[in-house]
Amino acid sequence: MHAQGGSPHNAIRNYAAAITETATPELKAALREQLNLDLTVADTAINLAQKMGQQ
Predict the structure, then answer these.
(1) Which keywords does this chain's UniProt record carry (predicted)?
(2) Range(s) of the domain holding residue 48
(3) Can you give the pTM of this predicted structure?
(4) How many domains does one find in the chain?
(5) Are 6 and 15 in contact (CB under 8 A)?
């Protein structure tokens, strides 16, 4: 899901803190984009695991 491991909730909190504390709009946008990508990857992994469990 995310490079450092840990729970998804911790990752979201870390992104939220980083986005809040970041001064530049460009970095905020990049962090939001990365968060969305991580959430998409997590969703895909969950969907695949569910499909494999149904077989």
Answers:
(1) Capsid protein, Virion
(2) 8-54
(3) 0.70
(4) 1
(5) no
